[in-house]
Specification:
The complex is a heterodimer. By secondary structure, chain A is an alpha+beta fold. Chain A is built from 26 helices and 29 strands. Chain B has helices spanning 4-27, 34-40. The chains are: A alpha+beta, B mainly alpha. Chains A and B meet through helix 2, helix 4 and helix 5 of A and helix 1 and helix 2 of B.
């Protein structure tokens, strides 16, 4: 079944081909006679797709079970060995409208994330168990248990708390030791110190049958801190898995022509200079090379930002990442791997990244002051108590109480809690933020630079004139255009379908790369293509539009004009950004006329055209040197260095792989409003995070003097720590409030179930 | 106070059962797809499709 596949966005794609030898490495055993295979399915991002895929695949003969993981966008299929081929599953998913790629959990970093996640959750569970039980015993002590009973309770607490601390505290201990080894102090140092000292001091007190033990404080602390750590991790893992899937989907190969004329499939990374590669129409080039055979048109929009394809013929130089549009070509690879235009850009990118000063997250900036301050306070307490003549025992107790009370429990939760709520909100509206630092940086931007093609525009042309054209002509032209993958042909077919017309069947269609299409219908010769091809004179002026001429028999040719359409809400987004006090620039590699048109349409005053990747990089660098915090928004390969150089960066999910990798935030869907939305949410997040810090610090200002004076009993410590943590979490939840309208509209967009569309297309 | 001899082990045992149940659920993959699980409950897969 090799039906054309169509994603939700109407983008055609080739289903992934399993190569014979490869297949085995994706498949694992799932019991006697059963095999398991996992697929990455990035489009399975809606609840509808879950039922859709599961019922459909489940109904296939030989399939035992199919289960969708909506969070990870994966499908796990268990099938009876020998009854069905994995390729059939991929094709079936393709038919349903989902691009699928088999995936080996060991290969990607995904399972590492999952494991880390599970480890933190287990530690959290152990700490939770210990905290609740020890607290129960502590409450009894506080309610007045005395003598032997109190000792019994303390011993029981010790038996629960010490193993729990040893197990659940490891993430903090390791991190603290690592930091100390490097001669640094991070937040985990005071945490580890506080927890360990509290535990050992309590053990000492228990052995001596004393009145106070702080076991509950040490495990409760761990519980709250692990919760913060888990939230932070969850957020990063979620975005990372979504983005890494987008990228892994496109790791492709090429069909290499051997000396004896046979063809062999070779993964892109194994291509070498000198190899001959066959590139079919509609495929992307895997490496730089010279054309040996065939003429065609190259869509260079990802590399240069130009929407109009360029004609190439034997001898022309072509680059990796370009799309071959019209005819099949044979390319001799001149550079692969490290010598490509692409890797040149990667070098630019990495130097841009090195030039950027490393961003330090708020929590870490605070930790620099926090740890020394806390340790000084504890030391001061110890010394002053000794000077006042209270003896070693009491002095040490007071100092440890200071360490316990200042343990940054609320601080550890303050930022992760806010950021996880915010990123969850953004994630649901289709914005994926790679980590907390990106969210913090997004709040600090003051300049936004947009790329044009594919970022402000959809990157696909649409018919703008003539609007009053006879339906006959349009249907005939579309009949010709159907045979071609040229962006303008596809735009013409889309327009005809949109108007509810049926393209006329045209016979003898031939595609002439660089010129256009020809065919016959009812004895008349038809031609569609550039001006010369249809017998029109060339005109000199450039009005920023793309055009196609259509000629029917001997009649006068009709000119179709196309324009790269703006993304929905592009103008509103620019206005909104300006309203937030941000400077907005346009930076494009396209022709001046086209750039001016778009800049005018969306209301951007500062526009640069014909910008090469180097120019873009220099532009961003210059602004950065002038002290601006630049948000670069771009999609192309040519934007990648600029994306890496920006203070932070965003890319649409339709962007090139390298663009998506370089960007710190990726948004799904067509609307450009995601940019303004992300900045808005990040600013709100930042404000609430700062409030949380203020609350946490305020708590310390109140509690530390009490601890230094020796008034902190285990009861006071427990109450103070829990309340401050709960207040901080409650405040964090406010980020999620007041934006339900947004979520509602996201749901509305989801009603085009992929399957229904795919079936409609197939019919 | 002799009642403590029964009560404390019972309390600890119940806590341990809860912890065990959680770790089991974690191991069996119930936390792998939190988003999917939220939607699954709304699925009308028990009514025959028209």
């Amino acid at each position: 079944m090799t039906l054309p596949c169509c994603t939700l966005d109407g983008e055609y794609f080739q289903p992934f081909k399993l190569e014979g030898e490869d297949a085995a490495r994706w498949i694992s055993s799932a019991g006697p006679g059963l095999k398991r295979i996992e697929f990455l399915v990035p489009q399975a991002n809606r609840p509808e797709s879950m039922a859709h895929i599961e019922t459909d695949l489940g109904a296939l003969a030989g399939v035992k079970s199919a289960r969708v993981n909506l969070t990870g966008r994966r499908v796990t299929v268990v099938y009876e060995d020998g009854t069905i081929e994995p390729q059939a599953l991929i094709d079936r998913l393709g038919f349903l409208g989902y691009m699928a790629r088999p995936f080996d959990p060991r290969e990607t970093g995904l399972t590492k994330d999952d494991k880390e996640n599970a480890k933190l959750l287990r530690a959290l569970a152990v700490a939770g168990f210990a905290a609740s039980n020890v607290m129960l015993l502590s409450v009894s002590v506080w309610s007045g248990a005395e003598g032997a009973t109190r000792d019994l309770f303390h011993w029981l607490s010790a038996m629960i708390a010490l193993p729990a601390v040893a197990y659940a505290g490891r993430p903090f201990f390791y991190s603290a030791v690592n930091a100390l080894r490097l001669g640094r102090v991070n937040m985990d140092v005071p945490i580890s110190l506080g927890v360990l000292l509290a535990s050992f001091m309590s053990l000492f007190e228990t052995i001596n049958g004393a009145e106070h033990a702080y076991f509950d404080a040490s495990v409760t602390l761990l519980f709250f801190l692990l919760a913060g750590r888990y939230l932070d991790h969850l957020m990063r893992a979620r975005a990372r898995s979504a983005i890494s899937q987008l990228i892994s989907l496109s790791s492709e190969g090429a069909s290499v022509i051997e000396g004896d004329g046979t063809r062999r499939y070779v993964p892109a990374r194994e291509l070498k200079a000198g190899m001959l590669v066959a590139v079919a129409a509609g495929d992307r080039l895997p490496a730089d090379g010279l054309i040996r055979e065939g003429t065609s048109d190259m869509d260079r929009s990802l590399l240069t930002g130009e929407t109009a394809p360029e004609t190439v013929k034997p001898g022309s130089l072509v680059h990796a990442g370009e799309m071959n549009v019209t005819g099949p070509i044979t390319v001799e690879i001149t550079a692969a791997g490290n010598d490509t235009f692409l890797s040149e850009l990667v070098r630019l990118m990495s130097s841009a990244e090195q030039g950027q000063s490393r961003y330090i997250r708020i929590a870490d900036r605070l930790a620099r002051f926090y740890s020394p301050a806390v340790h000084t306070l504890a030391a001061t307490t110890l010394i002053s108590w000794l000077i006042l003549g209270n003896g070693w025992h009491n002095s040490i107790m007071a100092a440890i109480a200071v360490l316990i009370i200042t343990c940054p429990c609320a601080l550890g939760l303050a930022v992760p809690a806010v950021q996880v709520v915010a990123s969850g909100r953004l994630f649901r509206s289709g914005v994926m933020i790679k980590d907390g630092a990106a969210l913090e940086k997004l709040a600090g931007v003051d300049t936004v630079i947009f790329d044009k093609t594919g970022t402000l525009t959809k990157g696909e042309p649409a018919l703008v004139s003539p609007l009053m054209v006879s339906t006959d002509t349009l249907a005939l032209a579309a009949g010709l255009a159907q045979a071609s993958k040229h962006p303008l042909s596809r735009a013409l077919v889309r327009e005809v379908t949109k108007r509810g017309l049926q393209p006329v069947t045209v016979s003898d269609i031939a595609e002439h790369p660089g010129l256009g299409l020809s065919g016959t219908h009812g004895g008349e010769k038809l031609r569609l293509g550039n001006r010369a091809w249809c017998g029109l004179e060339e005109i000199g002026e450039d009005h920023g539009l793309l055009e196609f001429a259509f000629r029917r028999g001997a009649k006068a040719p009709v000119l179709f004009h196309f324009e790269d359409q703006l993304r929905p809400d592009a103008a509103e987004t620019v206005a909104a950004l300006k309203g937030m006090g941000l400077a907005v620039h346009l930076l494009s590699g396209d022709r001046e006329a086209a750039v001016t048109r778009v800049a005018g349409a969306v209301g951007i005053d500062t526009a640069v055209s014909r910008a090469s990747p180097q120019t873009k990089l220099a532009y961003v660098d210059a602004l950065t040197k002038a002290g601006r915090h630049v948000l670069m928004v771009g999609d192309g390969i040519n934007d990648a260095p600029a994306l890496a150089a920006g203070y932070t960066s965003m890319a649409p999910s339709s962007a090139s792989d390298i663009g998506r990798t370089a960007a710190e935030t990726v948004w799904m869907g067509e609307s450009a409003s995601a940019v303004a939305n992300a900045i808005k949410v990040s600013r709100r997040t930042q404000r609430i995070a700062k409030e949380n810090f203020a609350l946490a610090v305020g708590y310390n200002v109140f509690a530390v003097p009490l601890a230094m004076a020796g008034f902190v009993s285990p009861l006071v410590a427990a109450v103070a720590m829990s309340t401050s943590s709960i207040i901080v979490i409650a405040n964090a939840l406010r980020v999620g409030l007041g934006r339900t309208a947004q979520a509602g509209s996201a749901r509305l967009n989801a009603d085009t179930a992929p399957g229904r569309k795919a079936l409609k297309d197939a019919a | 106070m002799n009642v403590l001899i029964y009560l404390i082990p019972i309390a600890l045992f119940m806590g341990a059962v809860g912890l065990g149940a959680f770790i089991w659920s974690l191991k069996s993959g119930q936390y792998d797809d939190l988003e999917g699980a939220a939607w699954r409950i709304l699925q009308d897969d028990d009514t025959p499709k028209p």
